[in-house]
């Protein structure tokens, strides 16, 4: 009786555990021929595992490894020069502490371009090693990284245009009392439309402020939204792409928007297994720190048909049952 009381529930739980995998869902379990194209790869601040982020070298590395687009962050200097910088201060990614130790907490937008362009934006990368899995650099690459400077938006756009790469960027409004506090979007548009020469269709315009005005002066931009919204609202605003954290989207959402010709970009995806899920879910592109790794993935990991999946688990269960039976027999 004691054995039955112990073994009975044990076998019931074991059977339940054996059957669970057969009811599991994964977008990578799908019928043959139903997988969509591989998502395009957009370099997050370039290729920050191979070069200092938001520098010319970083974007060149993205291009070298076959990236399809370039993502960055744009702010505006005190004298009206848009430049690339993610942080609000210059402390993390430049040598500001060495050159101007009393101004390390100053907002980056409050410096003149004359000052900004003289700062080193690469030595920190070799010193701090921002990624645990950074790629190995040759001596020449290390020397190149050590000599990077802050990158102007106009130069970034010219590079993207010359290589036919999409661009997407977060545009930061300057702080109060900044001369371009209220004309930041106008100044950025001047650079894009008049100074860079980039073809408008390569620009994924993400900033939501003054979107109607932007559409009127630059109708060729691909209007992009950073949050989910009803399809009708997106179409009314001429949105053609969503740019969202991968945790915010599902296969159903992606499919729903795709039916309305609204594509989806997911960020930030570095690991092959996560990229595989995005691929199987139908994402059209992903923003990544690891273009050099994901470019070599020829198909999603764990891709299999429902029949293959069921056979795999049934064989696993039968093997387990056989082993358990042998143990009890002994």
UniProtKB/TrEMBL annotation:
How is it placed in the membrane, per its record?
Answer: Multi-pass membrane protein
GO MF term set: glycerophosphodiester phosphodiesterase activity
Q: What InterPro entries does its record include? A: GP_PDE_dom, PLC-like_Pdiesterase_TIM-brl
Q: Which processes are annotated in GO (biological process)?
A: lipid metabolic process
Provide a GO CC annotation, any one.
Answer: membrane
By sequence similarity, the record places it as follows: Belongs to the glycerophosphoryl diester phosphodiesterase family.
Would you tell me the protein name for this molecule? Glycerophosphodiester phosphodiesterase domain-containing protein 5
- The organism is Tauraco erythrolophus (Red-crested turaco)
